[in-house]
Amino acid sequence: MHSTRKLWTWLAIICVLSFAVLGWVGTEIYLKAPPIPNQVVSSTGEVLFSAGQVQRGQQAWLSAGGQQLGTVWGHGSYVAPDWSADWLHREALALREIWAQREFGKSFDALGVGQQGELNDLLVREMRRNTYDASTGTITLTPDRALAVQQITQHYVSLFGTDPALNALREQYAMNAGSLPDTADLHALPAFIFWSAWSAATDRPGVPNISYTSNWPSEPLVDNHPTAGTGIWSIASVILLIAAIAGMIFYHSISREDVDPTPPKTDPLFDLKPTPSMKATKKYFYVVIGLILAQISMGVVTAHYAVEGHSFFGFPLAQILPYTVSRTIHTQFAVLWIATAWLATGLYIAPAISGHEPRFQKLGVDVLFYALLFIVVGSTAFGWIGSIQHLGNNFSFWIGNQGLAYTTMGRVWQILLFIGLMLWVLLLGRGLWPALKKPSESRALIAMVFLAALCIGMFYATSLAWGQHTHYSMIEYWRWWLVHLWVEGFFEVFATAVIALLFTRLGLIRAATANSAIVLETIVFLFGGILGTLHHLYFTGTPTFVIAIGGMFSALEVVPLSMIGIEAYRNYQRSKAAPWVQTYKWSIMCFIAVGFWNMVGAGLLGFTINTPIALYYMQGLNMTAAHGHAALFGVYGMLGIGLLLFCLRGMSDRAAWSDRLLKPTFWLLNIGLAMMVFISLVPAGIYQAWASVSQGMWFARSPAVVHSHVMERFVWMRVPGDVVFACGAVLLALFAIRLLITGRRPQPLLVQSGKLASV
Q1: 3-state secondary structure string, 342-389?
Q2: Which end of the chain is more exposed for a tag (fewer CB within 10 A), N or C?
């Protein structure tokens, strides 16, 4: 007990210090972010962009689809360009061409090597010179550059408008004509994209050769190359990773781990009678399965748009379900169904652990269910309506689609979801309270489950931290507080604590061992995970030291994942500990899959893109999608399905339970996911990374690469994996329907000669 108390103290210290540093970094980002100009003018006095247009352009881009329609500074979707890289390249080419025609009367390509070199040197000096005047809030451009900006502005007005000459390009970008019907929004959009590109190439004040985005994106024309810090801290992070893994191996080799206890002769949960509130969670799990099927369907449509930008096998689906909507639903439903499975599991196990059914608990569970259902349906419907009807910036922000990946729902729905999560924490706390008050070997473990749940609920409040006019760098800062700290922080803690608690209740691990192990694992996870948030913010207009902190601590995130295979193997051994454990075989197999994908998806593929130098060339490319699919579904999705099966087992007629359906379900989901990631997404990401290194980010995200024969073949190579994966999901749905039809309440198992008989 004394040892565990010391671990809790260390956990508290690490959390306080880490969040203090993360908060300080946020302050520095706010102070040193790229300045938003009051106006952009020519040195002759011509106004190119007026006061407020950059902020309005940001709102316009987000309402048009935002991070579901290309990226800015590398964050968003993968079919349309990175607009900051696209503008930067187009402006550089236009400016160079203006000089070539005026000075030599020829196009740039027709010039000699010496003349081209002269203009290239002039281009670098022109694009990197910082002409922002802080006293007036004005960016002043030379007349030639102002002319180039006007040319690119017209291109973007035509692209996001209805110019038929750009229909083919829109189809390649999977965007519909008339994305911004409001004239003021249409003319403000180029101001925001210009500013994002200006920030990417212009030197920071007093810091030569380093832009506000640390020279991201890669663009040889303007001398945008990785900074020295990007390379040095990448090397340092790899060295730290190797040293930390060696240290963890040494610790495991000298520490004596308690052997697992002798399992009980019978299932400890066999006589567990579900309470009314536990039974009420069943409908959550059926909604989870429905959301899985819907998410997969939207994923198929979204992937296909990478080949046919407006059609689905010839049918003009984009007229009613454009890419921005299908991808929004695909990503949002992924988070929603996983979170719903975990919420329902918490509500199910709370009375089971405490042996107490609080008054009105079932009513609370029912109210929360219908509230969550209202939020899911409402946010999806209004997001779709707002996108199709182009109802404007205010509608998009408040009740439509905010345009931010994984936090897309409008502010009203976010507020309602936060209230719903607080209700969940209250219901979970009421259910666990008797167990938390009562001294027991499992109390620390139960406390960890509740604290993780509390953090999951409380930290959703970070989605309310930005407003319509918040600086884009700060939006990214707060968005990753939510997405990263949820997924790679508190979800991880909740997952390990719940699995340990379930194994403890089944008598397969010792409670005392689990208590100290979970606190220690939480320390390791959060030590790297909290400040590891910054690896998402290397190139989003942040100070250069973010690369150092993010690079080092994101390397530490991988350390516990490198050893997680050991725990997966031990779980496999536990699945064979006693005959009755086979009752929970496929739940445990899902937990084993969680360990595998943690190691491969989160660890291997995550670290592939986490070092600053790797992310410099691969941010916003398909390697990110490979990591996202393998980690999000492989880890948290498989855990959600494992918890779903565990809870349904306790609420269902055991005669209706069919391992014959669960076995192919499990293998089809995992094999399909592996095929999808390693046959399609990883090769596509490597091909794009080659394009990025060789010619620049603009090229890796251009139609010449995205719609090349190679890339489109990789898209088609997803089909076998998608089909296998979808078959697994369909079998899971059939399994659940069979449970619903065949029986409604648990029946006693047959016991023959002290062994569990198959039923």
Answers
A1: HHHHHHHHHHHHHCCCCCCHHHHHHHHHHHHHHHHHHHHHHHHHHHHH
A2: N
